[in-house]
Amino acid sequence: MALTESEVRHVAMLAQIALTDDEVHDLAPQLAEILTYAEAVSEVAAADVPPTSHPYPLRNVFRDDDEVAEPLPPAQVVANAPQAEDDQFRVPRIVGEGA
């Protein structure tokens, strides 16, 4: 599939890529080759082959959830904090007042 230089410029504009005239001239045949390969791949794909997301069968590798322990009391959570107020961590403001 041959690409014209105007098609290459159009694709570059859509991708917001600035190309020089030399780059457009060099890229036209390269992009045409890529499209030819993509057409060849679509010819190989058969309707009886199910789409796959991974070449190997996967299984759940996560461990079973353990019983959840009682949460720590807030006072104990903030006990070693550099600054705490009302059982909450106190941190510096990072957003200006105009935001």
Write the layout of secondary structure elements.
Layout (H helix, E strand, L loop, with lengths): L4 H10 L6 H24 L29 H4 L6 E2 L2 E2 L10
Antiparallel strand pairs: 1-2
Helix pairs in contact: 1-2
Would you give an account of this structure?
By secondary structure, the chain is mainly alpha-helical. 38% of the residues lie in helices and 4% in strands. The protein has a domain at 5-44: Histone, subunit A, CATH 1.10.20. Helix 1 crosses helix 2. The protein has a two-stranded antiparallel sheet with strand order 1-2. Strand 1 (84-85) and strand 2 form a beta hairpin. The chain has helices at 5-14, 21-44, 74-77, and strands at 84-85, 88-89. The mean pLDDT is 86.
Number of strands: 2
Q: What is the CATH top level name of the domain at 5-44?
A: Mainly Alpha
| Coarse structural class | mainly alpha
The helix count comes to: 3
Give the second-level CATH assignment, the architecture of the domain at 5-44.
Answer: Orthogonal Bundle
Rg (C-alpha, Å): 29 Å
Overall pLDDT: 86
**Distance separating the two termini:** 52 Å
pLDDT < 50 runs, ≥5 residues? none
Summarize the helix and strand pattern as letters: HHHEE
Strand order of the largest sheet: 1-2
CATH topology title of the domain at 5-44: Histone, subunit A
